């Protein structure tokens, strides 16, 4: 395993995806398990993303890409509540 710019892109992309999935679940379902559903959806999305690469010439699935996808989702779960609290407080009239 080598941490290349390509690997960091996976981490960042899935971090952003995780922030938005977290918010969607929070608003649509108002669940106390938002973090769990975000993790499951994000991890499964990463798995599908890596798997379909075997159908594209010149691309191959990579386990470590999937691991970094999942870590990006995990980071998003940790920071998403803070981000959305800050944004919500900006939107509310004082």
Mean pLDDT: 92
Q: Over the alpha carbons, how many angstroms does the gyration radius reach?
A: 15 Å
**Straight-line distance between termini:** 50 Å
Largest sheet: none
Poorly predicted segments: none
Strand content is: under 5%
Give the overall silhouette. Answer: elongated
Tally of DSSP helical segments: 3
Helix content: over 70%
According to DSSP, the number of beta strands is 0
Structural class: mainly alpha
- The helix-strand sequence is HHH
Give the structure's gist in a few sentences.
Helix content is 78%, strand content 0%. The chain has 94 residues and is mainly α.
Q: What are the SSEs and their pairings?
A:
Elements lengths: L4 H25 L4 H19 L10 H29 L3
Structure write-up:
This protein is an all-alpha fold and 94 residues long. Helices cover 78% and strands 0% of the residues. The protein has three helices and no strands. The protein has helices at 5-29, 34-52, 63-91. It is elongated. The mean pLDDT is 92.
């Amino acid at each position: 395993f080598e941490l290349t710019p390509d690997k960091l892109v996976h981490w960042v992309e899935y971090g952003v995806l995780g922030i938005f999935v977290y918010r969607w679940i929070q608003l649509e379902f108002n669940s106390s398990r938002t973090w769990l559903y975000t993790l499951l959806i994000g991890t499964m999305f990463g798995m599908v993303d890596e798997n379909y690469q075997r159908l594209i010439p010149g691309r191959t699935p990579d386990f470590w890409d999937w691991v970094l996808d999942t870590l990006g989702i995990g980071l998003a779960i940790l920071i998403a509540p803070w981000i959305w609290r800050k944004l919500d407080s900006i939107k509310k009239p004082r």
